[in-house]
Amino acid sequence: MPWLAKLFPERTGFNNLLEAVKDLRNEFHILIKKRQATHSKDVLNDFLDFYLTEIEETTDEGSSFYKEEGVRNLIDLLINLFAAGSDTTTATLCWGFLYLLKYPKVYAKWKAEIDNVVGRGNLPTLIDRPKMPYTEAVLHELLRITSVTSGGLLHCTTESVRFEGYDLPKGTIILPNLYGCQHDEATWKDPDIFRPERWLNDDESEFIKDERSIPFSVGKRICPAEHLSFLSLFTFFTNLIQTFDFEATDAGLPTLDPKPGLVLHPQSYEIVLRLRKC
Fold first, then answer.
1. Do 84 and 137 touch, CB atoms closer than 8 A?
2. Sorted alphabetically, which Pfam families does this protein's record hold (predicted)?
3. Which end of the chain is more exposed for a tag (fewer CB within 10 A), N or C?
């Protein structure tokens, strides 16, 4: 919890986190300065080029893109993309292959859809995604059941409010229980069962989104990387499943109990990847 980090910055690893962020900030600052030296608004190859063009063209001193303020905001954004996004994506990938080996029928069904839609000898692309409802269902079920960011991020009330009989003064810190929402028996009936079919219509031909699953939180402060995360997970999972067969080692697999932390990771395990022959 945040108050523990303040009381015990060494034991909780908070100081190490600060040092890591400081190093990352310095690296991004060097990268941006190098790019600025060669940047041309006539050549826009990537996100950095577009952002730097916005900084160069901004004359409003109150803008978040204005000069050095714009550079600082760009660094913060890059840190969010690489630090926050990479850890959660890594955790979800590790969970995904563990669940597939724990639920072989889901694994076989997912592999069959990829083969049927993409065909052997081809790699899946985002163009294939609308034709793959079971893939979409597996990804949403995986994000629901793992809830890797179980508590989301801290928020606070901007004014005093009354909610469900409780008075919350302005400035009250709010920690959402995303895990609880996604494992509520009244909502999901069997929340601890990995069942992608809950996201499909009766004949399993169509994916049906359920707004009650909120792995990226809700509202105006929802995680800005929601869509990027789905695209990344789709690409990683489908290409790996299309290319390799995944098998457990003789050591077996761990339970589905997560390791405690701000981001929930599975227990350590090893698997074998073999190139698919058919």
1. no
2. p450
3. C
